[in-house]
Task: inverse folding
Protein backbone atom coordinates (compact mmCIF):
# COMPACT_ATOMS: atom_id res chain seq x y z
CA UNK A 1 0.00 0.00 0.00
CA UNK A 2 2.90 2.32 0.79
CA UNK A 3 4.45 1.63 -2.64
CA UNK A 4 1.14 2.34 -4.37
CA UNK A 5 0.86 5.67 -2.57
CA UNK A 6 4.44 6.60 -3.57
CA UNK A 7 3.82 5.64 -7.20
CA UNK A 8 0.62 7.69 -7.29
CA UNK A 9 2.35 10.69 -5.74
CA UNK A 10 5.33 10.49 -8.14
CA UNK A 11 3.03 10.02 -11.14
CA UNK A 12 0.93 12.99 -10.04
CA UNK A 13 4.02 15.19 -9.72
CA UNK A 14 5.24 14.14 -13.15
CA UNK A 15 1.83 14.94 -14.67
CA UNK A 16 1.72 18.36 -12.98
CA UNK A 17 5.24 19.14 -14.22
CA UNK A 18 4.28 18.05 -17.75
CA UNK A 19 1.15 20.20 -17.76
CA UNK A 20 3.09 23.24 -16.51
CA UNK A 21 5.77 22.69 -19.16
CA UNK A 22 3.23 22.42 -21.96
CA UNK A 23 1.36 25.48 -20.69
CA UNK A 24 4.58 27.48 -20.86
CA UNK A 25 5.20 26.36 -24.45
CA UNK A 26 1.86 27.62 -25.67
CA UNK A 27 2.36 31.21 -24.53
CA UNK A 28 0.62 33.45 -27.02
CA UNK A 29 2.08 36.60 -28.52
CA UNK A 30 0.18 39.74 -27.53
CA UNK A 31 -0.05 42.57 -30.08
CA UNK A 32 -2.30 45.56 -30.65
CA UNK A 33 -3.63 46.67 -34.01
CA UNK A 34 -4.98 50.19 -34.46
CA UNK A 35 -7.27 50.73 -37.45
CA UNK A 36 -7.53 54.36 -38.54
CA UNK A 37 -10.35 54.99 -41.02
CA UNK A 38 -10.81 57.72 -43.65
CA UNK A 39 -12.23 60.14 -41.04
CA UNK A 40 -9.22 59.61 -38.77
CA UNK A 41 -11.21 57.58 -36.22
CA UNK A 42 -9.03 55.01 -34.45
CA UNK A 43 -10.21 51.63 -33.19
CA UNK A 44 -7.76 49.51 -31.17
CA UNK A 45 -7.83 45.71 -31.18
CA UNK A 46 -5.87 43.52 -28.78
CA UNK A 47 -4.84 40.21 -30.29
CA UNK A 48 -3.33 37.12 -28.64
CA UNK A 49 -1.97 34.69 -31.18
CA UNK A 50 0.44 31.90 -32.02
CA UNK A 51 0.78 33.22 -35.59
CA UNK A 52 4.16 34.31 -36.92
CA UNK A 53 3.03 37.14 -39.20
CA UNK A 54 0.53 39.99 -39.01
CA UNK A 55 -1.85 38.68 -41.67
CA UNK A 56 -2.24 35.28 -40.00
CA UNK A 57 -2.68 36.91 -36.57
CA UNK A 58 -5.48 39.18 -37.82
CA UNK A 59 -7.27 36.41 -39.73
CA UNK A 60 -6.92 33.93 -36.84
CA UNK A 61 -8.32 36.50 -34.38
CA UNK A 62 -11.30 37.48 -36.55
CA UNK A 63 -12.00 40.94 -35.08
CA UNK A 64 -10.75 42.77 -38.19
CA UNK A 65 -11.92 41.95 -41.71
CA UNK A 66 -9.43 42.26 -44.54
CA UNK A 67 -9.88 42.45 -48.29
CA UNK A 68 -7.13 42.19 -50.86
CA UNK A 69 -5.07 39.75 -52.87
CA UNK A 70 -1.65 38.12 -52.90
CA UNK A 71 0.64 39.51 -55.57
CA UNK A 72 4.34 39.43 -56.42
CA UNK A 73 5.23 41.42 -53.31
CA UNK A 74 2.91 39.73 -50.80
CA UNK A 75 -0.61 40.49 -49.64
CA UNK A 76 -1.93 43.74 -51.14
CA UNK A 77 -4.41 45.28 -48.71
CA UNK A 78 -7.42 46.87 -50.45
CA UNK A 79 -9.97 47.09 -47.62
CA UNK A 80 -10.15 46.95 -43.83
CA UNK A 81 -13.46 46.41 -42.02
CA UNK A 82 -15.30 47.06 -45.28
CA UNK A 83 -13.61 50.40 -46.08
CA UNK A 84 -12.09 50.21 -49.57
CA UNK A 85 -9.01 52.19 -50.56
CA UNK A 86 -8.78 52.71 -54.34
CA UNK A 87 -5.42 54.18 -55.26
CA UNK A 88 -6.33 54.41 -58.95
CA UNK A 89 -9.43 56.50 -58.22
CA UNK A 90 -8.19 58.97 -55.60
CA UNK A 91 -4.72 57.95 -54.37
CA UNK A 92 -6.12 56.16 -51.28
CA UNK A 93 -4.27 53.17 -49.82
CA UNK A 94 -3.88 51.27 -46.55
CA UNK A 95 -0.55 52.06 -44.88
CA UNK A 96 1.01 49.67 -42.37
CA UNK A 97 2.91 51.05 -39.38
CA UNK A 98 4.98 48.95 -36.98
CA UNK A 99 5.66 50.50 -33.57
CA UNK A 100 5.05 53.99 -35.08
CA UNK A 101 7.43 53.39 -38.00
CA UNK A 102 6.26 53.02 -41.61
CA UNK A 103 6.13 49.30 -42.38
CA UNK A 104 8.56 47.70 -44.79
CA UNK A 105 6.65 44.46 -45.42
CA UNK A 106 3.26 43.33 -46.65
CA UNK A 107 0.86 41.96 -44.02
CA UNK A 108 1.71 38.33 -44.77
CA UNK A 109 5.45 39.01 -44.55
CA UNK A 110 5.37 41.27 -41.48
CA UNK A 111 6.77 39.36 -38.48
CA UNK A 112 5.22 39.96 -35.07
CA UNK A 113 6.71 40.02 -31.57
CA UNK A 114 5.18 40.22 -28.13
CA UNK A 115 4.15 43.81 -27.34
CA UNK A 116 4.25 45.08 -30.94
CA UNK A 117 1.80 47.81 -31.95
CA UNK A 118 0.61 47.87 -35.55
CA UNK A 119 -1.47 50.50 -37.29
CA UNK A 120 -3.49 50.04 -40.46
CA UNK A 121 -4.15 53.59 -41.61
CA UNK A 122 -6.31 54.78 -44.49
CA UNK A 123 -4.16 57.37 -46.27
CA UNK A 124 -4.42 59.38 -49.47
CA UNK A 125 -1.34 60.23 -51.52
CA UNK A 126 -1.38 63.89 -52.52
CA UNK A 127 1.40 65.48 -54.53
CA UNK A 128 1.51 69.07 -53.24
CA UNK A 129 0.93 71.75 -55.86
CA UNK A 130 0.40 69.22 -58.64
CA UNK A 131 -2.49 69.75 -60.98
CA UNK A 132 -2.30 67.70 -64.18
CA UNK A 133 -4.47 70.30 -65.97
CA UNK A 134 -2.13 73.22 -65.30
CA UNK A 135 1.29 71.68 -64.74
CA UNK A 136 3.50 71.63 -67.80
CA UNK A 137 6.05 68.95 -68.52
CA UNK A 138 9.39 69.49 -66.86
CA UNK A 139 11.67 71.59 -69.01
CA UNK A 140 15.19 70.58 -69.91
CA UNK A 141 17.84 73.21 -69.48
CA UNK A 142 20.42 73.29 -72.23
CA UNK A 143 23.99 73.44 -71.01
CA UNK A 144 26.50 75.16 -73.28
CA UNK A 145 29.44 72.99 -74.28
CA UNK A 146 32.89 74.39 -75.00
CA UNK A 147 33.99 73.17 -78.46
CA UNK A 148 37.51 72.68 -77.18
CA UNK A 149 36.24 69.93 -74.88
CA UNK A 150 34.50 67.98 -77.64
CA UNK A 151 36.62 65.28 -79.21
CA UNK A 152 35.65 64.02 -82.62
CA UNK A 153 35.83 60.31 -83.10
CA UNK A 154 36.27 59.01 -86.64
CA UNK A 155 33.48 56.71 -87.77
CA UNK A 156 34.32 53.76 -89.94
CA UNK A 157 32.13 53.40 -92.94
CA UNK A 158 30.17 50.20 -93.11
CA UNK A 159 30.42 48.21 -96.27
CA UNK A 160 27.50 46.22 -97.43
CA UNK A 161 28.10 42.84 -98.94
CA UNK A 162 25.88 42.02 -101.85
CA UNK A 163 24.91 38.41 -102.36
CA UNK A 164 25.21 37.30 -105.95
Result:
Amino acid sequence: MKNTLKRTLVLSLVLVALVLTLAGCSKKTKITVDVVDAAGEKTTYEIKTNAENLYDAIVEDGQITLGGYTGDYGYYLESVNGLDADYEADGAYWAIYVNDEYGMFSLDQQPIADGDNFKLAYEVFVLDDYDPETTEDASVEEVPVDDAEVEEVPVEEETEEVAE
Remarks:
- Helices lie at 2-25, 54-61, 87-90.
- The longest helix spans residues 2-25.
